[in-house]
Amino acid sequence: MKLAELSRGIADGRWSCRKLTAFCLEAIAENDQSGRKLNTVAEIDPDVWFRAEAIDREIREQGLKSPLHGIPVLLKDNIDAVGLHTTAGSLALSDNLAAEDSAVAARLRSAGALLLGKANLSEFAYFMSRDHMPSGYSSLAGQVVHAYVPGFDPLGSSSGSAVAVSARFVPYSIGTETDGSLISPAGASAIVTIKPTVGLVSRRGILPLSPMQDTAGPMGTCVEDVAAVLEVIAGYDEGDPATWNCRTAAYTQELCAGVGQLRIAIFRNSVDECGAAALDRAAAILTEAGAAVTEITPEMLYLDESTALLHEFKASLNRYLAGHGSACRSLKDIIDFNRVHAEQCLVHGQTLLEEAEALSGRLVESEYLKARASLRAKARAVLDGAFRRADVLLSAGPGPRGNLAPVAGYPCMGLPATEPDETALRPLSYYLIGPAYGESLLLRTAAVLEEALALICRPSWVKPGLF
What we know:
Blueprint: H1 3-11, H2 17-31, E1 41-44, H3 48-62, E2 72-76, H4 103-110, E3 114-119, H5 123-126, E4 137-138, E5 142-143, H6 159-166, E6 172-177, H7 183-188, E7 192-195, E8 215-220, H8 223-233, H9 251-254, E9 263-267, H10 273-288, E10 292-296, H11 306-322, H12 331-340, H13 342-345, H14 351-357, H15 366-387, E11 392-397, H16 404-408, E12 412-416, E13 429-433, H17 439-453
Parallel strand pairs: 2-3, 2-6, 9-10, 9-11
Antiparallel strand pairs: 1-3, 4-5, 6-8, 7-8, 7-12, 11-13, 12-13
């Protein structure tokens, strides 16, 4: 059931925030720490029932103020929300109780959403160790398990946020991405996501990896839901300079615009036979819907961003910790804590943390300044060249096709291209890239594909329910 339908049900009294909260918590109780043991939830707000009752009273007295009013959501555990811890999956930060809402959490609360709790993630947004740390693993909360096939890699750092939606624990969630951490887990879990332009959604109050590439984004079961959530969390924030030039839109209304007169360029770099067939089908759907479909071969799909990320991680993490209440006040404190508690904290090592700590943390090194400027220029040159000939770039695969969009700070989007096969899971998603603040173009294109494909992406074990 879409968010709009849930909202109508709240409006006409068929259910309440409290009933939706009970539905979510019952599903979590049955299959998160027990049952299938998906381990997607890191923490539940201890005041969640009282908050749900207060929201219900607000709705009775004042009416609905947004399509998210009264609907529960999980936040990735690197996003600050009052009453909840922000740990990034690290035992070292288990005492980091947020004193203020992040801008994202504040916008969700203002829209009337119920912040149910936090979703597990790959520790420090999958930027902890080079020693084969699995996706979805954290020293504090353990391993996220795939909802369709337990042994399959849930991918990316927003794995808990993705699996929780796939398992229908919540109707939508919020994840973050630096490079692939929304797109990859969404693809693995056969759900929909959009990574916004960096600066469309405020970064304030999110435990950082790279200020140049970090952004929060919505994860849901359909394009319409993702658009509705993006409409709420996007916008100017005085506390985040990245948002000072942002351009928002009425994303849900834009879905009706279709793709007539849009120029959509398909790129097949490194696409296998299954991906090629999916792209052929997409080309036929979009052409019939009125788009001008062409083909393109972008060069240099992957750029080595490791130098820039190492420098930015130390600098931005130390600034974040200085303004929060954890006993660990710096990256060095975290490294030292992990060494003392090595049996639990260093199962997969901390090589990336140690490499970052060896740097100044002041972003003054020549190698950093040259690397970041070069990365951004190269990624934008390739994409801007493509966008002179197309409005949207489209590919298909089990994950993102390169990292040009995150390095450039441009929006990208993922949605299922086929229904998951639970006997031999091979996720296949469409991957769309747009120009800066081109989210509406991506959402319009994705909506046309979604409607034509009419896929049913739900694990067979999930009981029919409200969503």
